[in-house]
Amino acid sequence: MIDFGFDKLALIGAVALIVIGPERLPKVARTAGHLMGKARRYVAEVKAEVNRSMELEELKKMKGQFEDAARDVEQSVQQEVNSATQAFDQTWQSIGGEGSSYEPLPPSYRHPGKKWRVKRGAVPLWYKKQQGVRRHVQSGAARVARFRPSSRF
């Protein structure tokens, strides 16, 4: 920034008082202050934008480094899996003879039985009984008869 001492500011103020006049000097000073504030805010915004772009570039570089590291790890894991698969295949062939390959047996079908829906129920019957959950459908008349108070005359 430009460095102004007290003597330079006093000289500028005296010249402004003579040239502009005492009536308009406060208004001009206010306007000049307002413009200086706008200029400072603009410079601050430009600095912030430059800092953000620098941080963004650094983040992009870090992202590239992390992606490279992830690719390296993925490749090394893939190589280890491939070597383990080859070793397993060689062992399997040596056990089972030439040309044998590992084929899993298909699962055999089993009929679920009569009460398969009950067996697959998520909530156990003891819990339903404890909580008072109705398990069977009742008609309205049956429900009224069940909860009708006993008559004693």
UniProtKB/TrEMBL annotation:
InterPro entries: TatA/B/E, TatB. The keyword Lipid metabolism does not apply. The keyword Cytoplasm does not apply. Coiled coil: none annotated. It is found in: Cell membrane; Membrane. It is a single-pass membrane protein. Its main location: membrane. Keywords: Cell inner membrane, Cell membrane, Membrane, Protein transport, Translocation, Transmembrane, Transmembrane helix, Transport. Belongs to the TatB family. The Tat system comprises two distinct complexes: a TatABC complex, containing multiple copies of TatA, TatB and TatC subunits, and a separate TatA complex, containing only TatA subunits. Substrates initially bind to the TatABC complex, which probably triggers association of the separate TatA complex to form the active translocon. Part of the twin-arginine translocation (Tat) system that transports large folded proteins containing a characteristic twin-arginine motif in their signal peptide across membranes. Together with TatC, TatB is part of a receptor directly interacting with Tat signal peptides. TatB may form an oligomeric binding site that transiently accommodates folded Tat precursor proteins before their translocation. This is Sec-independent protein translocase protein TatB. The lineage of its organism: Bacteria, Pseudomonadati, Pseudomonadota, Betaproteobacteria, Burkholderiales.
